[in-house]
Automatic annotation (TrEMBL):
A GO biological-process term: purine nucleotide biosynthetic process
Sorted UniProt keywords: Nucleotide biosynthesis
Similarity remark: Belongs to the ribose-phosphate pyrophosphokinase family.
Record carries keyword Repeat: no
Physiological role: Seems to play a negative regulatory role in 5-phosphoribose 1-diphosphate synthesis.
Record-level Gene Ontology MF annotations: ATP binding; magnesium ion binding; ribose phosphate diphosphokinase activity
Residue ranges of domain Ribose-phosphate pyrophosphokinase N-terminal in the record: 33-144
Cellular component aspect of the GO annotation: cytoplasm; ribose phosphate diphosphokinase complex
NCBIfam families per the UniProt record, alphabetical: ribP_PPkin
Name of this protein: Phosphoribosyl pyrophosphate synthase-associated protein 1-like
Pfam families for the chain: Pribosyl_synth (PF14572), Pribosyltran_N (PF13793)
Region (Disordered): 222-245
Amino acid sequence: WPTSQPDPPPFLSHGFTTMNVSRSGYRVFCANSTSACTELAKSITERLGVELGKSVVFQEADAETRVDVRESVRGQDIFIIQTIPRDVNTAIMELLVMAYALKTSCAKNIIGVIPYFPYSKQCKMRKRGSIVCKLLASMLAKAGLTHIITMDLHQKEIQGFFNFPVDNLRASPFLLQYIQEEIPDYRNAIIVAKSPSAAKRAQSYAERLRLGLAVIHGEANHSESDMADGRQSPPLSRTTPGHTGLELPLMMAKEKPPITVVGDVGGRIAIIIDDIIDDVEDFVAAAEILKERGAYKIYIMATHGLLSAEAPRLIEESQIDEVVVTNTVPHEVQKLQCPKIKTVDVSMILAEAIRRIHNGESMAYLFRNITVDD
């Protein structure tokens, strides 16, 4: 056996380097071609100091989604920014097709930046329903995603549906800053949960702002677990000869008390806290009750402003003074219909998450002072 090392190959001795000596680059793509949905992507790329990746996303004449990636992504970290417009199913398909296109183009890692995760309300078993959020998690993994950055999941347990890392960022620091800087005399405010299920989130805001807490409880609020799924009629009974069915105890039906406000809101600014504003009937009803109890200004703070259907008109005609949401979901059209809607930009924390993930830095800085209940 030779005792000395063999001479290096000629291509290494003449100044050539091997691949993967330095960290590979990264690219940021937008999985949606509409101008309303690319605004957040442009804000993120401007903060990162990079250009948006060259790609085209469009619908063919037969309504099929087509994605054309027009630059090399081999061996790079790819971040796909996908905001969810009104047509949520098309947006999901755009994300899946783009992730698969990048996977087959030999991208090193494919990270989905999905500020509002769709179908997150369907994350629990209701009666004999399905957990659609788990299905979507499986589809994203199959398409090639290796990591997800999202914000304020409807339920934190959704992270367990994935078999790859999920960073669930928080918008609360930005909304807390808005309260402190934009609401005059916020020290005279009280944080309100529009239902007992939202009390934990509202309590976190109240403790950080050193304010009081009130909870609305009663028949005006409809819990998600009580929503009808269209299968109320009992199934046909099948009897087996020689065997009688067991007599199970009958569960008593719930009956909600008349609507009440637990806490004193008289002469206060009421700030209602929630994670999603979609159908606003509950918020409008809560605002009327708070006005009757003496609140002189009513704000609504939420991360995701879906504002579906007639939401802008109902807000404009209601007792609500201002609705503050982040730009995780495009809502420029709704803002034109209702001047009460204000927007807080969260592109800063999304850009910092992208930078840290690519550089292999710790994400703990983005979760400082974040507790389990937040």
